[in-house]
UniProtKB/TrEMBL annotation:
Biological source species: Nonomuraea polychroma
Superkingdom of origin organism: Bacteria
Residues at the active site: 163 (proton donor), 361 (nucleophile)
Source organism phylogeny: Bacteria, Bacillati, Actinomycetota, Actinomycetes, Streptosporangiales
Keyword Hydrolase: yes
Entry keywords, A to Z: Carbohydrate metabolism, Cellulose degradation, Glycosidase, Hydrolase, Polysaccharide degradation
One family name in Pfam for this protein: Glyco_hydro_1
SUPFAM superfamilies cross-referenced by the UniProt entry: (Trans)glycosidases
PROSITE patterns from the UniProt entry: GLYCOSYL_HYDROL_F1_2 (PS00653)
This protein's name: Beta-glucosidase
Similarity remark: Belongs to the glycosyl hydrolase 1 family.
C-alpha cells in the first residue's frame, strides 16, 4: 500500500500537554492551569506544570522527529505565552520560544503546522466569560494575527482551533474539561463564539494554508459497526442523523457552507435561545479554508433511547442512547474500529468536496512497559497499522487526503486522565524526562521511509 508521492507524514502534540514551564518567560495562567490545580478534576492530581519539559527540551525532541523522518510536526501555541492576559501587547519572550521552535524544525527539514488554540485559554479571558463571551472571538482573532505577523514567513499551515466541540461541550457543558462549567446553554453559546473566532482568525492567516480541526466520527448503530449494510430502524436512523449533525455538521457546515443544521438551531432554541447568533455571523464564520483536520479515534455508536444523564447533558441528544461497540478497546475504553476512519473520510469528502482533508490526530493509549530500554507496544502498533490501511483505502476511494499525523509524538498530559494514559510513539519517563522510541515509532519511521505499508 503506497501513498501518493506528496502525502504528508507527521506527528502532533499540544502546548499544555507537553511544554511545562508554566510560569516561565512571562507566560500567563490558562484555564487548564486553574483546572488541573483544582482538587478532584484530574486523575492523581496531575498538572501540566512540568509535563514533558518540552519548553526546555525542544531541540532534543526535534532530533527525535528528525530520526523518525517526520515530514511535518503539528504543535500548538500557548495563547498565554503570547498574550498573558489574552489581550494587549505581545510578550516577546513567549513569542521567542515559538520563533526558535520553528527555526529548529525548519533546520531539521520538518514543516511546522501550528494550531493556534488547543484549549489553553488565558484565565483572564475566562474571568470575563471565556467562550460564552462574544468578545473572546475577537481577542482570538487579534492573537492569531499577532502570531501570524511574527511566524507567517516560515509557518505556512495553520489550524485555528482544535476540536471546538470538546472546548464547548466538555468545557462548558458537562464540565469534564476546563473551565469546568456545566450549562447546556453556555455550551451552545461557546460553540458559536468558537466558530466566530475561527472565521475571524482565518482571514488573518493568509496567505497561509488554513484549516479547522474537528473531532469527528462516523455515527453508527451497534449493528452498523460490524456491518455497513445493516439497515437501522427509523428511530435509530433518526438518532444517527441527529448526532452526526450535533457532533460534526455543527462545526463543518458553518465553516464550509455558512449554514447551521436545523438540529443545532433547534437545540439552541431549547437551551438558552439563539440570540447569540447574530445576523452576519455565519458569513463571518464561513471564511474560506483549505483543509478540514480530522481527529479520529473511534466511531460514535448510538441508538434511539433514553439520553445521557442530566449532568452529562449534550443539548439535542435527549432521545439518543450512546451504546457500546462490539469491538476491543484501548486503555481509554474507546472501541477499536479501523474502518470507521475510511467510512468517515469518504463521507466527509462527499459532504465537503470544496476542501481537502488531513488526518490531524489518530492514535491509541495502551499501558506501556519499558524493558531493557525498549517498549514493545504491539497493541499501539497494530492500532496504527489498521488505521493507516483504512487511510489508504480512503485515498483509493478518491478522498482528497493530504496527510496523516499520529497522536502523539510523546506520551503527555492526557487532560482529565493526567499522565496515566500514554498515547505517545515515544515513551517519556517523567521523573527523569528520558525519551525512548517505542516499537511503534520504529515501525512508523519505516512506513514514512517506504511512503506506505
Ligand atoms: O485523548 C487523546 C487526544 C488528546 O490528547 C488531544 O489533545 C485531543 O486533541 C484529542 N481529541 C480526541 C478525540 N476527542 C475527544 C477529546 C476528549 C474527550 C473525548 C474525545 C482525542 N484526543
Amino acid at each position: 500500500m503506497i501513498f501518493p508521492e506528496d502525502f504528508v507524514w507527521g506527528a502532533a502534540t499540544a502546548s499544555y500537554q507537553i511544554e511545562g514551564a508554566v510560569k516561565e518567560d512571562g507566560r500567563g495562567q490558562s484555564i487548564w492551569d486553574t483546572f488541573s490545580h483544582t482538587p478532584g478534576k484530574v486523575v492523581d492530581g496531575d498538572t501540566g506544570d512540568v509535563a514533558c519539559d518540552h519548553y526546555h527540551r525542544y531541540k532534543d525532541d526535534i532530533g527525535l522527529m528528525r530520526e523518525l523522518r517526520l515530514g511535518a510536526y503539528r504543535f500548538s501555541i500557548a495563547w498565554p505565552r503570547i498574550q498573558p492576559d489574552g489581550a494587549g501587547p505581545v510578550n516577546p519572550r513567549g513569542l521567542a520560544f515559538y520563533d526558535k521552535l520553528v527555526d529548529e524544525l525548519l533546520a531539521a527539514e520538518i514543516s511546522p503546522y501550528a494550531t493556534l488554540y488547543h484549549w489553553d485559554l488565558p484565565q483572564a479571558l475566562e474571568d470575563r466569560g471565556g467562550w460564552t463571551n462574544r468578545d473572546t472571538a475577537y481577542r482570538f482573532a487579534d492573537y492569531a494575527a499577532a502570531v501570524h505577523d511574527r511566524l507567517g514567513d516560515r509557518v505556512h499551515t495553520w489550524a485555528t482551533l482544535n476540536e471546538p466541540w470538546v472546548s464547548a461541550y466538555l468545557g462548558y457543558g458537562n464540565g469534564v474539561h476546563a473551565p469546568g462549567r456545566r450549562d447546556p446553554a453556555e455550551a451552545m453559546r461557546s460553540a458559536h463564539h468558537l466558530l466566530l473566532g475561527h472565521g475571524l482568525a482565518a482571514r488573518r492567516l493568509r496567505p497561509g494554508t488554513v484549516m479547522l480541526v474537528v473531532n469527528s466520527a462516523p455515527v453508527l448503530t451497534p449493528a452498523q459497526v460490524g456491518d455497513p449494510s445493516a439497515v437501522p430502524s427509523e428511530a435509530d436512523a433518526a438518532a444517527v442523523h441527529r448526532i452526526h449533525a450535533l457532533l460534526t455538521r455543527q462545526f463543518l457546515d458553518p465553516a464550509v457552507h455558512g449554514t447551521y443544521p436545523a438540529e443545532v438551531l433547534e437545540a439552541a432554541a431549547r437551551n438558552g435561545g439563539t440570540e447569540h447568533i447574530r445576523d452576519g455571523d455565519l458569513a463571518l464564520i464561513n471564511a474560506p479554508i483549505d483543509l478540514i483536520g480530522i481527529n479520529y479515534y473511534n466511531p460514535c455508536v448510538v441508538e434511539s433511547g433514553p439520553g445521557l444523564p442530566a449532568d452529562a447533558a449534550w443539548p439535542g441528544s435527549e432521545d439518543v442512547r450512546f451504546a457500546a461497540a462490539d469491538a476491543p478497546t484501548t486503555a481509554m475504553g474507546w472501541p477499536i474500529v479501523p474502518d470507521g476512519l475510511s467510512r468517515l473520510l469518504i463521507r466527509l469528502s462527499h459532504d465537503y468536496p470544496e476542501v481537502g482533508l488531513m488526518v490531524t490526530e489518530n492514535g491509541a493509549a495502551f499501558d506501556d512497559v519499558v524493558e531493557n530500554g525498549r517498549v514493545h507496544d504491539a497493541d499501539r502498533l497494530a492500532y496504527l497499522d489498521g488505521h493507516l490501511r483504512e487511510v489508504w483505502r480512503a485515498v483509493q476511494a478518491g478522498a482528497d487526503l493530504r496527510g496523516y499525523l499520529v497522536w502523539s509524538l510523546l506520551d503527555n498530559f492526557e487532560w482529565a486522565e493526567g499522565y496515566r494514559r500514554r498515547f505517545g510513539i515515544v515513551h517519556v519517563d517523567y521523573p527523569t524526562q528520558t525519551r525512548v522510541l517505542k516499537d511503534s515509532a520504529l515501525w512508523y519511521r519505516d512506513v514514512i521511509a517506504r511512503n506506505g505499508l
